[in-house]
C-alpha cells in the first residue's frame, strides 16, 4: 500500500469511528484533520468534498461489515447455522463502541436525499439480500418450512437489530442483548 493509500485508509478508519457517534453530518474536516495531524487541505485532497468523505465513510463501513460480519458468517454451514452466524456476528459488531453504524446512519440519512443516503441504502439492500438468500438456503436445506418468506425473515432480522440498537444505545436496557437473542430465536422457531 502506498503512503497516500495508507493515509486515506487511516482517515477513513477514524472518520468511520467518529461517524458511529456523530453521524456523517457531524464529521468535521477540521476536527478530522487535527486528529490525524494533517492540514485541512491535506485531508481535503483525499476526498475533494465533505460529501465525498461521507460517501467514503459509508463505503468503508460497508467494507468493514462485509469483512467482519458477512464473509466469516458465510463460512458457517449452510442454512439455519449460517443465518445464526450472520446474526451473532452482527450482534458483536453492534456491541462495539458507538454501536452499529448502519443503524445510526439510517436514522440520520433516511430523509436526506443524496449520495451518502444512496450509498447507505445500497449497503442495506445488499445486507437484506444476504439475509434473504441465506434464508432461502435454509428452506432448501429443510431447516425452515417451504412457505417461509425469505424477504420477511430478512425484514424481521433487520427490525430485531434496529430494536436492539435502540434498546442498548438509547434506552440503556441492560437486558437488550438477551431480548435481542430471544426475538431472533422466536423468529427461527416460527420459521421451522
- Uncertain parts: none
Q: What is the string of helix and strand elements?
A: HHHHHHHHH
Compute the number of helices. 9
The CATH architecture would be Orthogonal Bundle
Rounded Rg: 18 Å
Task: Provide the domain count.
Answer: 1
- The CATH superfamily is Tetracycline Repressor, domain 2
The percent range for helix content is over 70%
**CATH topology, which one?**
Tetracycline Repressor, domain 2
Structural class: mainly alpha
Mean pLDDT: 93
**Tell me, what is the CATH class?**
Mainly Alpha
Strand fraction equals under 5%
Net shape: elongated
Strand runs, count: 0
Largest sheet: none
For the termini, the CA-CA separation is 47 Å
Any descriptors?
mainly alpha, 192 residues, single chain
Summarize the structure in words.
The chain is mainly alpha-helical. The chain has one domain (51-191): Tetracycline Repressor, domain 2 (Orthogonal Bundle). Helices cover 76% and strands 0% of the residues. The termini are far apart. The mean pLDDT is 93.
Describe the secondary structure blueprint for this structure.
Layout: H1 3-22, H2 29-35, H3 40-47, H4 50-73, H5 80-94, H6 101-109, H7 115-140, H8 150-170, H9 176-191
Helix pairs in contact: 1-4, 1-6, 2-3, 4-5, 4-7, 5-7, 6-7, 7-8, 8-9
Amino acid at each position: 500500500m502506498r503512503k497516500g493509500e495508507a493515509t486515506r485508509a487511516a482517515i477513513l478508519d477514524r472518520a468511520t469511528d467518529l461517524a458511529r457517534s456523530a453521524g456523517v453530518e457531524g464529521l468535521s474536516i477540521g476536527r478530522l484533520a487535527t486528529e490525524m495531524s494533517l492540514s485541512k487541505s491535506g485531508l481535503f485532497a483525499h476526498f475533494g468534498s465533505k460529501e465525498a468523505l461521507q460517501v467514503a465513510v459509508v463505503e468503508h463501513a460497508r467494507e468493514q461489515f462485509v469483512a467482519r460480519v458477512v464473509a466469516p458468517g458465510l463460512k458457517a454451514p449452510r442454512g439455519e447455522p449460517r443465518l445464526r452466524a450472520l446474526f451473532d456476528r452482527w450482534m458483536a459488531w453492534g456491541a462495539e463502541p458507538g454501536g452499529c453504524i448502519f443503524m445510526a446512519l439510517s436514522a440520520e440519512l433516511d430523509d436526506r436525499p443524496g449520495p451518502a443516503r444512496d450509498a447507505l441504502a445500497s449497503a442495506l439492500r445488499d445486507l437484506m439480500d444476504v439475509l434473504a438468500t441465506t434464508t432461502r438456503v435454509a428452506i432448501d436445506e429443510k431447516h425452515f418450512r417451504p412457505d417461509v418468506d425469505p424477504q420477511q425473515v430478512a425484514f424481521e432480522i433487520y427490525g430485531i437489530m434496529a430494536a436492539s440498537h435502540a434498546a442498548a444505545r438509547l434506552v440503556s436496557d441492560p437486558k437488550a442483548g438477551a431480548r435481542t437473542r430471544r426475538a431472533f430465536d422466536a423468529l427461527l422457531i416460527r420459521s421451522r
